[in-house]
Amino acid sequence: MDYESYFGDELQAVRDEGRYRIFAEIERKAGSFPHATRYVEDGTTEVTVWCSNDYLGMGQHPKVTQAMHDVIDQCGAGAGGTRNISGTNHHHVLLENELADLHGKEDALLFTSGYVSNWAALGTLAARIPGCVVLSDALNHASMIEGIRHSRAECMIWEHNSPEDLDRKLATLDPDRPKLVAFESVYSMDGDIAPISEILDVCEKHNAMSYIDEVHAVGLYGPRGGGVAEREGLMDRITVIEGTLGKAFGVMGGYIAASRNLCDYVRTFASGFIFTTALPPAIAAGACASIRHLKDSNAERERHQERVQKVRGALDRMGIPHLDNPSHIIPVMVGDAHKCKFISDWLMDNHGIYVQPINYPTVPRGTERLRITPSPVHSDGDIDRLLNALSDIWSRCELARRDVAA
Ligand SMILES: *Cc1c(COP(=O)(O)O)cnc(C)c1O
Question: In sequence order, what are the beta bridge partners of 357?
Answer without folding.
Answer: 370
